[in-house]
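Protein: AraC-type DNA-binding protein
Species: Flavobacterium xinjiangense
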Amino acid sequence: MIKKHLFLLFLCLGYQAYAQESAFKIPDTLRSKDYDYLFERVKALEDGSVKQSLYLQSFLHKAKSEKNPEKIIDGYKNYVHHSPENLKLVYADSMIYVAKKSKDNALIGSAYLSKGIVYYAQKKHNYALDNFLIANNFISKTNDNYLIYKVKYNIANIKYYLRFYDEAISLFRECTSYFKDENARAYLNSMHLLGLCYNKIGNYGLCSETNEKGLAEGKRLDDNEMESYFIHSEGINQYFKNNYATAIKKITYSLPVIKENKDFANESVGYFYIGKSYWALHKPKMALPYFRKVDGIFDAKSYIRPDLLENYELIIKYYKSQNNLKAQLHYIEKLLKADHILDTKYEYLSGRIRKEYDTKEIISERNNIKILLDRRKYNDFIFIAVITFLFFSILFLVYRHIRNKKIYRQKFEELMEKSETTTKVEAKNTTNGIEGINQDTVASVLKQLERFEKDKKFLEKDLTAAKLTAAFDSNAKYLSKIIYHYRGKNFTKYINDLKIDYIISLIKEDKRIRNYTNMALAEEAGFSSTQRFTTAFFSKTRMPTSYFIEEIKKAHP
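Structure follows.
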């Protein structure tokens, strides 16, 4: 009866989602927008907001009207990422339905992989593994390395959960090497889980080293989403190094972000090791509230893993010391329940991953070795090398294009947030002046620079330091020193930045200027060549002129 009600609820949710899609009509203002624009707006807006819903529906409607299976699947994937929990699986099934109709192995495999990831996030590991294995069957028939490594990553997660740490380490190392130049977030995730595995096998030094590298790489890649997770990992690692106060401090620091991410699994583990640290410090009363938090998550989410069984053993031990038989009995029942859940899950997961993934991987590896041995001919080697080079070149170009668009967007928003830009900077020490130059001379040159900037004399073509020195009736060496000290730049960058700031203000204020070519803009700013203008513009703004003008047109039609 319960299953029947759940099935009816699932159908109702699916019908509700379908009805919303069917009744939708894309607004005229969004008809000409491309998928990248709609996707960026979905990411930028708050989940569940009316505006986000408009862009989600517009993306999917556009894909359906163009009968583009890949983009339809992307549309449903957007819903998977940004919908309430009770609808995520509905949209994941929609992805699978469209993928199957396309008969494209990569699309089908990717859809099943997405559904598995939803289940894994819900800590329903049985269902997650089922979908990962189905995904692997389809993806293994393709040459899509990115998807192949996504499967490896998710299988490695299951192996970590099953405590097959050495095997998980091998897979996570592969993923770290592959994703380093392909996907920053996947690279950092792989490194984080690699560190956790090192902790589990007792290599605490290598765990700390991996966590430190993860934090450094996050800064290098300008991606701080994993920062709290590396700190959380290091906090647990510090517990095993017997640095209990440090463990409490680090884990406590990491938990707000983890709770905000609704990551109840890492939240539970964090509470457990804070409790264990207080217990090790002989403060059981301070440990008990954290152990109860772990129990609360178990009640709410049915989440448990092998090391968390000790949570109940310590609670029972505490109440035994208090001679509280009723509380002891209650938590003994909880311990038995958690142990039963683990036994059931582990038996199923362990059996399937050994039978259906590991055996298949071994056979696949054996077959690959045979093929390589059979193909050791010079011409075949050259052919494979060329194809591989072309494949990764295309992947790199696609990746660079996506990455650049993201960087350009960020730089554009930063530029728009600034007030009227100026190349003028405060001197490091305006009171002491510049050593070796008379203060009256400095004051005179500064006044002339201000008048030079105000009158826009910098727009003169082929302006050189020698010409400006002559105009100021000054000394070339003095002029360069004064510009560097009070404007923070050398002469060439100072002039170029003034010209670019002038062009930026023109583009913002004058719609006519937005239609100028780079050659015309270079002429307007007084650059001697188009190349010098485009180089100076990119150096100043970190984006091409075409991108900047297009975004200005969107922001101020």
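Remarks: Residues 1-20, 419-431 have pLDDT under 50 and may be disordered.
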